[in-house]
Write a structure and sequence with these properties.
The complex is a heterodimer.
Chain A (H helix, E strand, L loop, with lengths): L1 H41 L7 H11 L2 H25 L6 H39 L2 H7 L4 H4 L1 H34 L4 H11 L2 H27 L5 H31 L1
Helix pairs in contact in A: 1-7, 1-9, 2-7, 3-4, 3-7, 4-7, 4-8, 4-9, 4-10, 7-9, 9-10
Chain B lengths: L1 E12 L2 E12 L3 E6 L5 H8 L7 E6 L2 E2 L5 H10 E4 L11 H12 L5 H14 L15 H13 L5 E5 L7 H18 L2 E5 L3 H7 L2 E6 L2 E7 H4 L5 H14 L1
Parallel strand pairs in B: 3-8, 3-9, 6-7, 7-8
Antiparallel strand pairs in B: 1-2, 1-4, 4-5, 9-10
The chains are: A mainly alpha, B alpha/beta.
Chain lengths: 265, 248
């Protein structure tokens, strides 16, 4: 009986702890929205030039890996679909499938996952290391709000970087589909593009763009959340970094599912 | 005259009380040293005094003004008046020495002209002997240089009181002694109040005007450095004897 009540106590404690984490996460999200708005109005509270530095890191440094991965995903998805469509003699519809899938789903999802691994991990590692080395406390005692100083430039930078990355990733991913259409299904590139434009519109591009932007914000907030709440010790930095990537990817998939419900039902 | 007065202070995390019923004051323009065994709550006390950990009970008065830990305004007014030198310097690795020292100016006095900022930064860096290392990044500096750069940053806005968390930790005796000289110089030339958390006997002997000894979360001794050895106290004797032996 005693063991059972102890077990129940542990489960209840864990549940309350998770609730507390959830509350902290939403508190940080609300703070960041407020600080970003405050910065956009007053233009104060972040280090001069930091947005540009972060933008360079997020856009320029992520660009090659985003291109490579979306190209490969474009090729893979086209090869898989082309084989099935061939069975029904519907090869030309490959362009419809590739266009919609890349713009609305695969580019946002893959870009989000890449950014979670590359940007999210680095944001958590940086912030948690700063926490362990007392740099966050130092900022506070200098009268600087760390949650604003460190997070707002990253939120603004990802907002600026995502449209560029999405546009390039859409182009490269569809290019992968065009290649497969050309060499495996015998569809000339101009027919592929013409057919694709019959079904794909600018709306699809913007849906993908908005989704990726929201994924980007989710990544930055999750990474900050994991980074700021590290206590002490280098081993916690590694754990927080891993947890932040897992949290970001889980959030991306959850948000994608929510988007799917709103867009298709 | 006292710059900080603490009354009935309890500090802790959650249900655990680490510091109990502390009553003390920090005199203006003097060097006060806080010491005690590892884990006795020295760093926690310092973090409370600099507004990072809210007390469970009790009050802290800064120049007669009560610090309200729930008010951002009150905390910001405290942060404007203090400078803090952290144990490992806590310089931002993404900024060079000049940028680190200029950071408080750039963030708090944005309207200050570039020439004035440069003059202030050069003056502080020359004072700590780092006039030649402006472009270096923290990773390129030795432990002593990092602490001196952090000291320059802590002093850049001319704080009324400077807190130093184990300034000698990890430094060789010569560098550590140089840092002590700097702190003494600040007291003598600028009349700055300095609060130092340290274990180093040599430093204590050299710089302390007032000493506060913490023992298991309580104030064991608070008074002039000269009075420390005139009292017949087994804990203090053992503490200093062991420390003294470790030094030799």
């Amino acid at each position: 009986m005693k063991t059972q009540s102890k077990r129940f106590e542990i489960i209840a404690d864990q549940f309350l702890l998770q609730l507390q984490h959830l509350r902290t996460f939403f508190q940080l999200l609300a703070d960041e929205l407020y600080y970003t708005g405050q910065y956009l109005i007053k233009k104060r509270g972040i280090y001069p030039g930091e947005i540009g530095k972060q933008f360079f890191f997020m856009a320029y440094k992520s660009f090659p890996i985003v291109c490579l991965i979306t190209f490969l995903v474009g090729v893979t998805i086209s090869l898989t679909s082309a084989a099935q469509l061939k069975l029904f003699g519907a090869d030309i519809y490959l362009s419809w499938f590739v266009g919609i899938a890349m713009l609305r789903e695969l580019v946002p999802l893959m870009t989000g996952v890449i950014l979670a691994g590359k940007i999210g991990a680095s944001v958590t590692a940086e912030i948690s290391t700063m926490k362990v080395l007392d740099e966050i406390d130092a900022l506070k005692t200098m009268g600087i709000i760390p949650e604003k100083f460190l997070m707002v430039p990253r939120l603004i930078a990802i907002t600026l970087a995502v449209p560029l990355l999405v546009a390039i990733a859409d182009f490269v991913g569809i290019f992968g589909g065009v290649m497969v259409g050309r060499y495996f299904s015998g569809i000339p590139p101009e027919s592929f593009i013409r057919e694709m434009l019959n079904i794909v519109s600018l709306k699809d591009f913007f849906i993908g763009l908005v989704k990726t932007m929201i994924f980007g914000w989710a990544i930055i907030i999750s990474s900050g959340f994991k980074g700021f709440f590290v206590k002490k010790g280098a081993e916690e930095v590694g754990r927080a970094t891993t947890e932040s990537v897992v949290l970001s990817i889980s959030l991306i998939i959850l948000l994608d599912c929510v988007f799917a419900f709103f867009l298709y039902f | 005259m006292d710059i900080i007065t603490v009354s009935d202070l309890d500090v802790g995390y959650g249900n655990a009380t680490i510091l109990k019923k502390l009553n003390f004051s920090i005199p203006k323009g003097q060097v006060t040293v806080m010491l005690g065994k590892s884990g006795c709550g020295k760093s926690t006390l310092m973090k409370t005094l600099i507004g990072l950990i809210p007390p469970l009970k009790g009050d802290i008065f800064f120049s007669g003004e009560k610090i309200d830990f729930l008010s951002e305004e009150s905390l910001h007014s405290l942060y404007k008046r203090i400078g803090v030198l952290y144990q490992n310097g806590a310089l931002l690795n993404s900024l060079n020495v000049y940028e680190n020292v200029a950071l408080p100016i750039r963030m708090r006095q944005e309207s200050l002209k570039r020439e004035k900022e440069e003059r202030a930064v050069y003056q502080r860096l020359s004072q700590v002997g780092l006039g030649e290392s402006l472009e270096k990044y923290p990773s390129e500096l030795s432990g002593g240089m990092r602490k001196r750069a952090a000291l320059a940053r802590a002093m850049i806005l001319d704080p009324e009181i400077l807190f130093c968390d184990e300034p000698s930790a990890g430094l060789d005796p010569i560098t550590s002694s140089g840092l002590d000289e700097l702190l003494l110089d600040l007291k003598q030339t600028l009349g700055m109040t300095v609060v130092v958390v340290t274990h180093e006997l040599r430093s204590i002997e050299k710089i302390a005007d007032k000493v506060m000894v913490l023992r298991e979360g309580e104030m064991h001794f608070s008074g002039k450095y000269e009075d420390l050895f005139s009292m017949d106290d087994a804990f203090i004797e053992t503490f200093f004897l062991k420390k003294g032996r470790n030094h030799d």
